């Protein structure tokens, strides 16, 4: 009996998968993981997000600024931006394809793909815009931000399903947008570091050259928004310590502009690290005594995942919906709201108990393979019907 030919795999497009700098790298890591998986059988392609400097994008930016009276903060979430990014999609995306968007909006063009070409649209989210703007910027009196929320609502309305980082995002989709529970899958996220870089950096070990005292404490925070990541609160807490203890602390900060950080002898600002500098940054993360994230709000703390994957213990605030992460071996939790005096006392304890830090590192290294993409890709494929049978 002649075997029946296998049906052609469905084409899955990952919107934003063209560059690891978009959306904390989750889209590009997801794309690579689909390609590497033995358990899924889609034809996986990219729908690219564009940089502001991309051809014709500056004109789109200027038009947006004029129409929204200088409301630049929301451009990357706007219909104008996503319509420009997806302008070629109606001609290039076959009917019936699947699209996974790491952006909260896909613009009029993306919504038209669903209605006119039978595309199934899925979102993979760390937060909704309502959560993000409410926590970071606020919407009172900002008409252009309200328009962004309306565009998000219209895009969500066209979705076949949602993959989200944690239950907090799922609850927001249900409560704020009326998304049915059965259209939401809580799947977490994997780490966005290249596998070959993970292996090489782990091999290097914890071999940071030390100053005179072997009790020097090296802290490190990674993230562009210094205020939101709690950088200034860490600096304030170190300032509270006596000079002799301050001299034993080094605080490495990667992400914010160097000029945005106060000048302190103990602060080492690395600025925004890109390209070839990324590999060296991972080495610095591996060699830090503690990764630090004393943030008041996060969609999901990606830098903590990266530190733990490299075997570096972490000190993080007790952010909502991160209970499982805070219970992970090698994590120390700091109560919210952040209190400078309490943080200073914790720093003093770290300084005077190097054995506790070594124990934290051993715990982190014991579970450093916990944050892989395999289970996430499998769940997505099962939901979308692209698993290999």
UniProtKB/TrEMBL annotation:
Keywords annotated in UniProt: Transferase
InterPro entries: Glyco_trans_1
GO molecular function, one term: glycosyltransferase activity
Source superkingdom: Bacteria
Record-annotated Glycosyl transferase family domain positions: 212-365
Keyword Cytoplasm: no
Key word Nucleus present: no
CDD domains, sorted: GT4_PimA-like
One Pfam family from the record: Glycos_transf_1
Protein name, per record: Glycosyltransferase family 4 protein
Organism (species): Roseospira marina
Phylogenetic lineage: Bacteria, Pseudomonadati, Pseudomonadota, Alphaproteobacteria, Rhodospirillales
């Amino acid at each position: 009996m002649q075997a029946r030919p296998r049906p052609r795999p469905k084409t899955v497009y990952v919107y934003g998968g063209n560059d690891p700098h978009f959306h904390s790298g989750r889209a590009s890591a997801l794309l690579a993981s689909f390609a590497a998986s033995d358990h899924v059988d889609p034809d996986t392609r990219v729908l690219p997000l564009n940089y502001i400097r991309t051809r014709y994008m500056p004109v789109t930016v200027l038009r947006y600024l004029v129409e929204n009276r200088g409301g630049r903060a929301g451009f990357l979430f706007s219909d104008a931006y996503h319509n420009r990014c997806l302008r070629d999609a109606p001609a290039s995306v076959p009917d019936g394809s699947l699209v996974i968007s790491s952006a909260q909006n896909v613009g009029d063009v993306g919504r038209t793909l669903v209605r006119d070409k039978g595309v199934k649209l899925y979102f993979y989210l760390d937060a909704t815009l309502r959560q993000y703007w409410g926590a970071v910027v606020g919407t009172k009196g900002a008409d252009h931000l309200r328009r962004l929320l309306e565009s998000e609502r219209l895009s969500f309305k066209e979705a076949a399903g949602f993959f989200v980082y944690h239950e907090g995002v799922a609850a927001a989709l249900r409560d704020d947008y009326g998304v049915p529970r059965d259209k939401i899958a809580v799947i977490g996220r994997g780490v966005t570091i290249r596998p070959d870089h993970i292996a090489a950096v782990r091999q290097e070990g914890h071999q940071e050259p030390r100053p005179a005292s072997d009790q020097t404490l090296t802290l490190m925070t990674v993230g562009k928004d210094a205020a939101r990541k709690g950088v200034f609160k860490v600096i304030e807490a170190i300032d509270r310590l006596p000079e002799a203890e301050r001299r034993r602390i080094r605080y490495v900060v990667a992400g914010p502009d160097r000029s945005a950080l106060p000048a302190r002898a103990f602060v080492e600002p690395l600025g925004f690290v890109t390209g070839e500098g990324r590999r060296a940054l991972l080495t610095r993360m591996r060699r830090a005594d503690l990764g630090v994230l004393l943030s008041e709000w996060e969609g999901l703390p990606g830098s903590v995942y990266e530190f733990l994957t490299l075997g570096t213990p972490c000190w993080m605030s007790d952010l909502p919906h991160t209970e499982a992460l805070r219970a992970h071996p090698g994590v120390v939790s700091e109560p919210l709201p952040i209190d400078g005096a309490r943080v200073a006392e914790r720093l003093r304890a770290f300084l005077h108990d190097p054995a506790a830090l070594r124990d934290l590192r051993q715990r982190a290294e014991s579970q450093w393979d916990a944050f892989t993409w395999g289970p996430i890709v499998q769940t997505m494929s099962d939901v979308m019907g692209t698993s290999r049978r």
